[in-house]
Design goal:
Elements lengths: L2 E7 L6 E3 L4 E4 L5 H6 L2 E7 L2 E7 L2 H4 L2 E5 L12 E7 L3 H14 L5 E8 L13 E4 L4 E4 L2 E4 L5 H8 L6 E6 L1
Parallel strand pairs: 9-12
Antiparallel strand pairs: 1-7, 1-8, 2-6, 3-5, 4-5, 6-7, 8-12, 9-10, 10-11
Helix pairs in contact: 3-4
């Protein structure tokens, strides 16, 4: 089974990749040494031309991808725009996620995150994993405990504290 992550907001977000650093290179313009040294490589064909999608380092590869799911209704969220979120269980992916959310949220707004196994979107959430992140107050509340978020590097501090859990509900608010 596949673990699914969802992001819900009260406004539309731009879909696509965020936080990664892909390189698209025509196949005829790249040499074998560069391909062999790449962290990740994959060939694609577009309009009769072959292209390589390359990530030079692991850091270049780790980001997030969001894609709108119009037909999906999650019983655990109140926001109306639901997106499927690809976000690896890695600190750098969490940084990309929190940077994206920080850039999107205005004062008084919130986004919701929900994670579960594919097909279990309607299952009861595990409230023990409920998490509230208040960016303005600098608070991270999870499992009944409250932690301060360092103001000088809020994104990195959140990425160190956060982890995905099955049927977890998260509110991030400003």
């Amino acid at each position: 089974m596949t673990e699914k992550h969802y992001l819900a907001a009260n406004k539309r977000f731009k879909q696509g990749e965020y936080g990664s650093n892909p390189l698209w290179v025509l196949a005829e313009e790249i040499d074998e040494a560069e391909l062999e040294n790449a962290y990740f490589r994959q060939v694609h064909e577009c309009m009769g031309q072959k292209y390589w999608l390359i990530y030079k380092t692991k850091e270049d590869c780790l980001g997030i991808t969001i894609e709108r799911r119009k037909e999906l209704i999650l019983p655990h969220v109140t926001n109306k725009f639901v997106y499927e979120l690809e976000c690896a269980d890695e600190r750098l992916s969490y940084e990309a996620l929190f940077r994206f959310v920080d850039e999107q949220l205005g004062y008084g707004e919130k986004v919701e995150l929900y994670t579960c196994w594919d097909g279990e979107e309607d299952a009861d959430r595990l409230t023990v994993f409920d998490t509230v992140i208040n960016l303005t107050a600098g608070l991270y509340i999870s499992g009944g405990a409250s932690f301060a978020i360092r103001k000088e590097n809020q994104i990195a501090d959140l990425a160190r504290k956060f982890r995905w859990y099955d049927r977890q509900y998260v509110v991030i608010q400003r």
